[in-house]
Every structure is written in structure tokens, then in C-alpha cells.
């Protein structure tokens, strides 16, 4: 065990549903608080999980803001509500939450956005957005947000965006552990400043529907086993996350549960411009094609794949259960 002092973590909630906290409670560990402690994290306060009274919590927050209590990791869950000078979200003493966040980010060694709302604005910023909700350092996919594109925490890093709606609990815990170990540098973050340990993957990686994708054997309704990309709105071939490798609750993912990937780790996912369960097309070709794949190649591959689709794959794709099992065949070389 390291003799290094644990990092003090303060967790705040702003404009959001609290779903990332609920997800965190489903982390694959027996005791969340002990897991954080073992990772070198001292949880100063969490609005939903801590037992301190309002006055005690306020004393902790004020001590951090004044520099009297070291603040190593400031986490924000939920979007910042900037509208009407922050009037949509105030603390119990009347201070605009956005002002409190700004004060704390000036002294925090690391600032972490928990979930897509805190990172990019997320669901809270959807629609006409009367609260002027935005992320800590992004407004959608544009740098800026509350803190501005030049913001750096005192340790030198920009806001770390653990995006997702909600975030996977292990993305959060592993990021905290990496910070405690001193293992996160700017090169460990992707172009949208998400930790690369999950953002260097695509949701498509590890998808159990990949055989159907390879043959372009597509589902036509939510209960079908086939690939959800062509008709059902799945964006898994474009979205950065390891959801089908690092399973949720050790069991599944959105697509394994029969629902398309809606790109919840990406900025702007909340307003795709079409129903989440439908794939927009031009001349029968999906608008959103797989990452790094030229359109002409996709069209050629799709045509060839469909012509070669085995009967088993074709019929299973439009059924809610496996109707034809793989053939038994000797595979030994002669």
C-alpha cells in the first residue's frame, strides 16, 4: 500500500437527474466507500450519499473554497444552469450555484465532469434550453461552457469529461484511481477530453450482434435479434465507449437489452434530429456510417454482404429468438 495521502474529493450536483450517482451505486464492488478509500480517495461530501447535515456540508464546501481544506478532485454531476445569472439554481444561502462552482474550480487540483450533462450540457441543455444549461468546459461540442476553453485546474489538466448518460460506474472509479496514482496526463484524454481508457473503443466493439452487422442482416422491430444500425437508429459503430466490452452490472448493455445505442457519450446526443429508434437515410443509405469508413466502401460492402447472407443469419435477424442454429461441421484439417 502507498503511504501517499489520499486525495480529497468533493462531489456536487447541478442541473440533472442524479442518474450518474445511481449508476455509481451499481459499481462492481462490495462497498463503494471502501473501494474509493482503497483507491486513495477520501470522499469529503456527496449530496446524496453523505450523512453530514446541511450546515456541516456547507462548512466543508466553504473550507475548500477558502483553501483551508485541500480540494484534490472537484466533481460536478449535472449541467451548469447559467440562465438569468444563475437564478435557476441557488444554494441554501442564496448563492448562484454557477458562482460556487467557479470558486471551487479555481482551487481544485483536478476538475471532473461526471456524465454528459456536466461535460457537454446533455439532456438538460436540450430543446429551447431556457436555463442556458451547459457543460463545465463545453457547450455541446464547442469548447467554452462555464469555465472557458483555456481553463486548467491547479494540477494543469483541463476538465476531465467522464461522459455518458449515465456514466458507467467503473469509468468513474478507474478515473479516480488513476488520478490518485498520478497516471492521468493530457495525452490520456481524447479530443473531447474523455478518459481514453474507455473512449478509445467503440460501442460496436464486442457487440453480440456483430455477425448480423457483418452480413447486414438487420432488425426491423425492437425485439428482433438482427443488427440495429440500418433501421433502428443504432450508432454503436460511431460512438466512443466500451459498453459491450465492460458490461453494465456485469451483465449487459443497451444493445444487448434490445435497444439501439443513442450515442450518450457524445455531445449533442440529446437532439439527434430524428426519433432515437429510427435510422435516417438518404437514398436508402444510413446517414451515420461507421467511423473511418468511406461511404462508397460501405455501400459496396453492404451489397456484397447481403448477397452472401446465410439463411440462418437472415432468418434469425428478424426473429426474437434463434430459429436456426449453426450447422454442425467437422473442422479438423486433413
List the helices and strands and how they pair.
Blueprint: E1 7-13, H1 19-24, H2 32-38, E2 41-45, H3 54-65, E3 73-77, E4 80-81, H4 83-86, H5 97-105, E5 110-114, H6 116-120, E6 133-134, E7 138-139, E8 142-143, E9 160-162, H7 169-180, H8 196-199, H9 210-214, H10 229-232, E10 281-282, E11 285-286, H11 295-307, H12 311-317
Parallel strand pairs: 1-2, 1-3, 3-5, 5-9
Antiparallel strand pairs: 4-6, 7-8, 10-11
Helix count, DSSP H or I runs of 4 or more residues: 12
Please provide the count of β strands.
Answer: 11
What is the CA-atom radius of gyration, in angstroms?
22 Å
Q: Which architecture of the largest domain does the CATH hierarchy give at level 2?
A: 3-Layer(aba) Sandwich
Which series of helices and strands comes N to C? EHHEHEEHHEHEEEEHHHHEEHH
Shape: elongated
According to CATH, what is the topology of the largest domain? Rossmann fold
* Strand order across the largest sheet: 2-1-3-5-9
> What is the rounded distance between the termini?
55 Å
| Total domain units | 2
Low-confidence stretches: none
Q: What kind of sheet is the major sheet?
A: 5 strands, parallel
Mean pLDDT: 94
Level-1 CATH class name of the largest domain: Alpha Beta
Amino acid at each position: 500500500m502507498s503511504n501517499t495521502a489520499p486525495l480529497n474529493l468533493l462531489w456536487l450536483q447541478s442541473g440533472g437527474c442524479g442518474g450518474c450517482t445511481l449508476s455509481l451505486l451499481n459499481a462492481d464492488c462490495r462497498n463503494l466507500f471502501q473501494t474509493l478509500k482503497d483507491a486513495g480517495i477520501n470522499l469529503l461530501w456527496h449530496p446524496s450519499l453523505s450523512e453530514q447535515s446541511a450546515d456541516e456540508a456547507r462548512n466543508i464546501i466553504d473550507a475548500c473554497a477558502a483553501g483551508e481544506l485541500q480540494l484534490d478532485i472537484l466533481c460536478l454531476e449535472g449541467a451548469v444552469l447559467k440562465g438569468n445569472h444563475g437564478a435557476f439554481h441557488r444554494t441554501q444561502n442564496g448563492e448562484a450555484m454557477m458562482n460556487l462552482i467557479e470558486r471551487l474550480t479555481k482551487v481544485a487540483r483536478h476538475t471532473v465532469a461526471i456524465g454528459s450533462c456536466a461535460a457537454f450540457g446533455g439532456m438538460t441543455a436540450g430543446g429551447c434550453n431556457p436555463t442556458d444549461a451547459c457543460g463545465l468546459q463545453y457547450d455541446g461540442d464547442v469548447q467554452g461552457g462555464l469555465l472557458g476553453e483555456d481553463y486548467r485546474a491547479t494540477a494543469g489538466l483541463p476538465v476531465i469529461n467522464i461522459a455518458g448518460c449515465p456514466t458507467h460506474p467503473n469509468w468513474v472509479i478507474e478515473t479516480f484511481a488513476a488520478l490518485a496514482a498520478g497516471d492521468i496526463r493530457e495525452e490520456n484524454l481524447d479530443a473531447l477530453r474523455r478518459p481514453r481508457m474507455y473512449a478509445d473503443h467503440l460501442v460496436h466493439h464486442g457487440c453480440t450482434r456483430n455477425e448480423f452487422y457483418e452480413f447486414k442482416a438487420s432488425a426491423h422491430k425492437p425485439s428482433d435479434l438482427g443488427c440495429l444500425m440500418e433501421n433502428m437508429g443504432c450508432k454503436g459503430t460511431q460512438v466512443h465507449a466500451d459498453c459491450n466490452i465492460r458490461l453494465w452490472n456485469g451483465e449487459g448493455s443497451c444493445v444487448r437489452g434490445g435497444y439501439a445505442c443513442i450515442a450518450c457519450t457524445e455531445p449533442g446526443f440529446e437532439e439527434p434530429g430524428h426519433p432515437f429508434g429510427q435510422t435516417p437515410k438518404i437514398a436508402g443509405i444510413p446517414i451515420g456510417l461507421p467511423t473511418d469508413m468511406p461511404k462508397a466502401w460501405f455501400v459496396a460492402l453492404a451489397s456484397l454482404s447481403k448477397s452472401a447472407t446465410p439463411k440462418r443469419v437472415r432468418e434469425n435477424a428478424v426473429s426474437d429468438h434463434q430459429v436456426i442454429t449453426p450447422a454442425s461441421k467437422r473442422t479438423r484439417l486433413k
